[in-house]
Amino acid sequence: MKYHLWVGYIFLSFFLFINPYTYSSTNSQPITKAINGTDATLYAPLLLPWQAAIKQNSYDSISCGAVVISEFWLLTAAHCNPIDIDEIAIAGTSLIKDGDFSDLDQKYQFKIKQIIPHPDYNEDYFLNDITLLRVERSLYEVAQPIKIATIEEQYLADIEFESSWITYGNSPATVIASGWGDTLEFNSPTTLQVITLAGVPDNQCNGLILNDDQMVCADSNINGLIKDVCRGDSGGPLIWQNKSNIMDSDKGIRLIGLTSNGQRCSIRINESENQYNQLTGQYTQVSTHREWIEQQIRLHGKKPSFSLDDNSLRPTLDTDPFSVAKDIPDNNEEIIKNTYRSGGNISLNWLFSGLIIMIWRRNLTKRYKYNS
């Protein structure tokens, strides 16, 4: 092992000892995380008609998010354990009352007929963190699908992220995440939360990225304001807009990610002064799995000609979410402000640990590539 790596590990061990937050801040975990989002119903009754959720087993609560991609099929995250989820998916509504589904109309509830996790899902690194769900009746009764980005469109998104992301400054909102997950308040929200974010270039994404084709990264686009998804948002959509198709019926909206992993929300807030040294939110890059999705639907859905390029999978939207979604909630009292300001101080502890993490990640990435 090279000398600088030995030195790096010694320093890392030292800072792990003196800072109880360091390890949890550098180890990706399936803690899906919505802070400082806004109610989707502020903009339209059903702003995101592809948004879905999975009921928690034995309790009226949301276990994970999901996404409608065709008439009988949804996507969610593979780390959403089948043992923890019920056989009910919910779609076509922006309102789900946590703790009591008695008023939830049956037309929004769909029995899950089949669960197909990706066979190569790796729980240590969240590789292939994607699962297909098949329901018994048509989702089109109340919902619409979203088109999955192609490899070429993901490349365009990556270029946009590279040119627009600004560290220690405000970035334009290039992606939107959504869900009914934890908001760090007493109860989970009844109304679907929409969180505008900025796509983060792969080379500036803090976390265990072992394969750039596996993950899309996104973080708050507002300097000094923590925004993120939280526990309960796993498997929900991360959307991006292909501006060359903005005049289409779907406004050019594409599904590029599924909420996968990132920093614990409690650490996000407790260590908010270190906004740019925390784990970046990571989302399963869906375009990578287009072929697998098509194969599974053709096989299990008995549709040998199924294609994700089918124009029937394009929704018709009256409202463009990227045109209306707000970067900052109107009620400033509810905003959890980050104490960081441009030109402020960052502790030496974080500077040293950040340096060692970079060295460790680079070495880990090389080991993975050469041993795969």
Automatic annotation (TrEMBL):
Entry-linked SMART domains: Tryp_SPc (SM00020)
Q: Which InterPro entries match?
A: Peptidase_S1_PA, Peptidase_S1_PA_chymotrypsin, Peptidase_S1A, Ser/Thr_Proteases_Immune/Dev, Trypsin_dom, TRYPSIN_HIS, TRYPSIN_SER
GO MF terms here are: peptidase activity
Annotated keywords: Disulfide bond, Hydrolase, Protease, Serine protease
Nucleus recorded as keyword: no
Peptidase S1 domain span: 34-298
Answer whether the UniProt record assigns the keyword Protease to this protein: yes
Any Pfam family hit: Trypsin
PROSITE patterns the record matches: TRYPSIN_DOM (PS50240), TRYPSIN_HIS (PS00134), TRYPSIN_SER (PS00135)
The GO biological-process annotations, alphabetized, read as: proteolysis
PANTHER family associated with the record: TRYPTASE-RELATED (PTHR24256)
Question: What name does this protein carry?
Answer: Serine protease
Q: What lineage, starting at the top, does this entry show?
A: Bacteria, Pseudomonadati, Pseudomonadota, Gammaproteobacteria, Vibrionales
